[in-house]
Amino acid sequence: MVTLTDNAIGLIRRLTDRPGVPNQAGLRIATGSAAGALTVGVVSGPLEGDHVLDSSGARVFLDAEAVRTLDDKALDAGLHDGTVTFTVTEPG
After folding, report:
1. Domain extent at residue 20
2. What is the pTM of this model?
3. What is the CATH number of the domain that holds 34?
């Protein structure tokens, strides 16, 4: 299962704790149209069949293919010039 770095947890919580965002909101990671591509976005809740990961209040929803793609990986995040970027790395 994917793990979240402290940076990722903090940024996901910042994205989902904003005014007007539902309490059950989270970051959804799903398979993109290109091979190996993933889409990422804040959504109001998981879709049917999504795997739900809650790490210290940072909620992540993953479709089945994203679960397989990110198995044994770490999700890191950074904030650069107001833009959030997510990076998949090896854990450790």
Report:
1. 3-89
2. 0.92
3. 2.60.300.12
> CA nearest 28: which of 8, 4, 6, 44?
44
Instruction: State how beta strands 26-31 and 58-62 pair.
Output: parallel
Total domains in the fold of the chain: 1
Amino acid at the residue 56: S
Give the contacts of 4 (CB within 8 A, at least 6 positions apart): 12, 53, 55, 58, 60, 74, 75
Could you give the residue ranges of the DSSP H alpha helices within the chain? Answer: 6-16, 64-69
Residue type, 47: L
- Residues 17-75 have pLDDT tens digits of 999 999 999 999 999 888 778 999 999 999 999 999 999 999 999 999 999 999 999 99
CA distances to 13, 60, 76 from 47, in Å: 19, 11, 23
